Amino acid sequence: MAKPLRELHDVELAALSAAGGRREFGELVRRHSPAVRGLLRRMGAQPALADDVAQDAFLLAFEKCAEFRGEGTFGAWIKRIAARIYLKRRSKDARYVAEVENDEVAPNVDSAGRMDLDEAMKGLTEPERLCVSLCHGAGLSHPEIAAAINLPLGTVKSHVKRGLDKLRARLQSEPVAHGSASHVG
Amino acid sequence: MSVDEFDPAIERLFARAPAFADSAQFEAGVAAKLNKSSRFRTVALSVAGLVGGLIAVREVLNVDFNIGSSSASASAGGGATQGLSMAGVDAAQAVQSLLDRLGLAGLDLGTMGGMQMFWATAGVLVALLAAGVVKLSQEI
Q1: Would you call B21 an interface residue with chain A, using a CB distance cutoff of 8 Å?
Q2: pTM over 0.90, yes/no
Q3: Is A134 part of a structural domain of the chain?
Q4: Per the domain annotation, does A1 fall within a domain?
Q5: Residues in chain B within 8 Å Cβ distance of A37
Q6: Residue-number span of the structural domain to which A125 is assigned
Q7: Which CATH number is A174's domain given?
Q8: Is residue A48 located within the same domain as residue A110?
Q9: To pair with A27 at 20 to 30 A between CA atoms, which of A5, B28, B60, B133?
Q10: Cα–Cα distance for residue pair A30/A109, rounded to 1 Å
């Protein structure tokens, strides 16, 4: 008897998808779409456009599923695909660059006064946000980021460092977030 | 990533996927786009197969006629053309009898010439072949 889809590993699902399995690919979409959508928003894409890019990334992944051999995780693979599609569109269409919200004065926090990563990311400049999310969200190396967004390597490193410093400051300035970080870290 | 940039807490925050209320809608959107691209591919393959098949049939016929003329045998060339016409007439009769059985006897194919009938039959065969290939490509 075949195992239920939810019990199959990503590599098995990808292999079945490569053979044309729509249901199996649907399971991969179910598992990984939140991470992909979240990454694109963190990179600075507006929600509707982020979802558009995420859907196109999954369509491309379905076409290229046979190329996924399980050397890394499927999640990392699809996030890199999505990030590259977004960068390509962003370089051609200004609509894909979201305006950075200046919410330093009144950041959105939950009832416990906690600021989450997405909220903290809003305090970064657009290049910092892009570099940090490409590095820590999509798993690209600094040279890969430099090549992808056409910036000098040193500039990319500076953006990542400054972005991380700002993130730490924003996240740790919240008492609950600080407690949470120490709990998980 | 340099060592001083590695921060387990930050890494963990990035690894945590946010929850979206409209996840089901998003997944349905991906499925719809997949179906759409599949339909487009089916149509494109059918059209390409049809056009390619017709061109192939035409080329085959041209080759036959050229062979007939280059062999300097007018009777052989004439025979080939005549054979083709006969095949067309046979096909017309077969199709006509099929139409009779389907109660579409009013459609008189007798007015079509042998050559026209041959082309029509070849077209139908090529279309059937293309449909078969498309169906096969979807199943594989």
Answers
A1: no
A2: no
A3: yes
A4: no
A5: 18, 20, 26
A6: 103-185
A7: 1.10.10.10
A8: no
A9: B133
A10: 28
